[in-house]
Every structure is written in structure tokens, then in C-alpha cells.
Amino acid sequence: MKISPWLLLGFVATGCTSDDPPPTLEEIQLEVFNKSCGFSSCHNGESYLLDLSTITASAAMVDQESARAPNEIFVIPGDPDNSYLIKKLEGEESIIDEAMPPPAGGLEDSKIAMVRDWIAAGALSD
Question: CA distances (Å), 38 to each of 20, 45, 50, 64, 86, in order?
Fold first, then answer.
């Protein structure tokens, strides 16, 4: 079987190889939510929005409708492209309000890739 060099380049660019395990929720929590989302002005437990300050965040996100965008599922296990979380992180035009985290588009591509990989692998809670 011949592998396309473009496919291989895509895996290398996102840091994924067939040998790399998908990121865990704990890794997402530590590397993305705690550093970029769970601070005082955003998702810290006191906001009316989703509380991302604890590891229990997956229960509030996975297979749950977005509080701000009816009919949008925040995290659809195995389907990052249709998960509202990815749409918000990437600043897709269809989102309600602004991209996350502010300023719009403020999350590094490598961290978005981590979240995408976690969702693609089933958005498990570890």
C-alpha cells in the first residue's frame, strides 16, 4: 500500500502518527482549558457559561447542546468538524458571539489540533 506524501505531511503537521495515542481529557484540561479558558473572566465556575475550571468539564460538553447556540452539540464524540467547540475555537462564521478564547482566534493551532484529536478519538473522560 502506497501512502500519499500529502497525507503523511498532514499527520506530521498536526503531530499525529499512528503510534501517538490521542490526548486524554486530563491533557486537554491542563494544556488547553486551564491555560486558555478557565481563568477569572471566562469559564471559572462563576460565569453563566460552561465551567471549564475542573476535570468534570467533559460531562458538561460531550453530547450536550450549547447553551448559547440551540441545536448545536458542543462535543460530538468522533466528529470534531461538527462539534460546536471546534467551530468556536476556529472562529467559524456560523457561531454565536465571538471565537474562543478571546481575542478571537487566540488559541494556537497545535492546541486546537489536540482538542480535535481528543474529539476524533471519542472524547473520552479518561
Answer: 27, 8, 10, 19, 17
